[in-house]
Amino acid sequence: MSSAPRHWSKKSLAAQALGHVDPITKAVVPPIHVATTYIRDPDNQYSSGYVYGRPDNATVREAEAVIAMLEEAEAGALLFSSGMAAATAVFGALDPGDHIVAPTVMYWALRRWLTEEATRWGLKVDFVATDDLDALKAAVRPGQTKLVWLETPSNPLWTVTDIAGAAEIAHAAGARLAVDSTASSPVVTRPLSLGADVVMHAATKVLNGHSDVIAGALAGARADEFWARIQRIRSGNGAILGPFEAYLLMRGMRTLHVRIATQMANAAELAQRLSAHPAVAQVLYPGLATHPGHAVAARQMTGFGTMMSIRVAGGEAAAIATAARVALWKRATSLGGVESLIEHRASIEGPTTPCPPDLLRLSVGIEDADDLFADLDQALRQD
Question: Is 54 a catalytic residue?
Fold first, then answer.
């Protein structure tokens, strides 16, 4: 690792992956360490710091260091084999009988896991509109609630929750606050600086940005026993990210700042233009002054993200037909990549979804904004 001054901006540090130079070859791109086992010293110690590949890996450590830098995480960061593996490790660090408060609107797979699997382990879960701090305060149980889980902006309605306000409520009740910041990224929001204890990313999405890695990440505010328990869960469950995936993630994060800047500019322009479209009943985007969470988003974010949803005036059938007619936009799930994606979320989430049937989720990429609008415009106008 070079002696790069830490007063350099996060953009500069991320672009150079903290300035690492391979000590043997002097390569500016770190090698991929694929070894699963390491030599023990003659005195029976492991002076290299590595023992076995399941709990630890050098390439993974390098990518974790970039995330920890971006999140200003005192405890560091941990990479997992998926976002779900990262999120469930946090819940797995709780004890049977612990009470959890989670958002009504959140990533559907994790919501389903909480309702179907977490309760089987003895965890008690209540869902509440976390953007309403009074409702959140009423939902926590002092002495019983051990974790408040937020997702902000929340998928797919892009509800915004006041992280600092939620942290105050959680801590007053003796609970930790964890924030799924997948849709935001540390370029836009740093939950730990707002009082969160743990921040989670489905690193598959914005952090990687190229739709070629499945990964999850956690960053911790402090290296306490709870964080140590999460580390043991990752090791014991074999949930660490593979070295090649870690390398790809690190490569993706080198361009994070420039990708986000272009994607957010495109999203802001599309939100304004789609708001005036006759075939669009509503645009859900925190950057619009009409969005209920706009004021909170402006206070705790340095931009409004790359995600939005539109409600199609013609209803569910028109929404599905619109998605079928696009050409530049790609009909696919996931989000945060350089390519723009469109998806009818209710079809994915099923009958228990809080998602309106006329809603299309848009993940805005780095293409030309005029092209993106023109493609949506022709698809919307054919009904």
Answer: yes
pLDDT bin (cut points 50, 70, 90) of residue 30 is confident
Distances (CA, A) of 153 to 14, 159, 236: 23, 5, 32
Active-site residue flag, 180: yes
Across residues 61-70, what is the average pLDDT?
Answer: 97
Of 146, 205, 251, 345, the active-site residue reads 205
Compute the C-alpha angle 178/65/341, nearest 5°: 65
Tell me if 331 sits within 8 A of 342, measured CB to CB: yes
Give CA angle at 343 (338, 344), nearest 5°. Answer: 165
Strand order of the sheet with strand 280-284?
280-284, 307-312, 359-363, 341-343, 330-331
Among residues 98, 180, 197, 358, which one is catalytic? 180
The predicted-structure confidence for 236-252, as pLDDT tens digits, reads as follows 999 999 999 999 999 99
Share of the chain above pLDDT 70, in %: 98
Choosing from 107, 146, 285, 361, the catalytic residue is 107
